[in-house]
Description:
Layout: H1 6-9, E1 26-27, H2 29-34, E2 45-48, E3 51-54, H3 76-80, H4 98-112, E4 116-121
Parallel strand pairs: 1-4
Antiparallel strand pairs: 2-3, 3-4
InterPro entries: Cyt_B5-like_heme/steroid-bd, Cyt_B5-like_heme/steroid_sf, MAPR/NEUFC/NENF-like
GO cellular component, one term: endoplasmic reticulum
Pfam family, one: Cyt-b5
Amino acid sequence: MVEQTGESKRFEPKVAVQLDPPKDDPISVEELAKCDGTDPNRPTLVAIKGVVFDVTRNSAYGASGSYRVFAGKDASRALASSSLKPEDCVPEWYDLPDKEKTVLDEWFTFFSKRYNIVGKVEGAKNT
């Protein structure tokens, strides 16, 4: 058995997650905004760097969850800067310092090991 290095193991979920193959369906900003955890008939979605993740099964992103601020948005900047401020939940991240860009990449890895990729934000320029 091959032992994983600390770095690659660092983002592994505690419980193995079976993920579907990633999709690249276009999702409009308007549709993404409707998937903010407040409508039980819609999935709860969070986008990072233009890639849309389905976080429905994690109540932390739901209407009363501690991470609800990210739901229905591309929250790249907020995740990169470890912010829960609604005004930071925007897709632009290119002007951030390298350290925060690294944090954003780590969040992307974290999400990609736990949540299905269901599409890409239509017209996203922050990939």
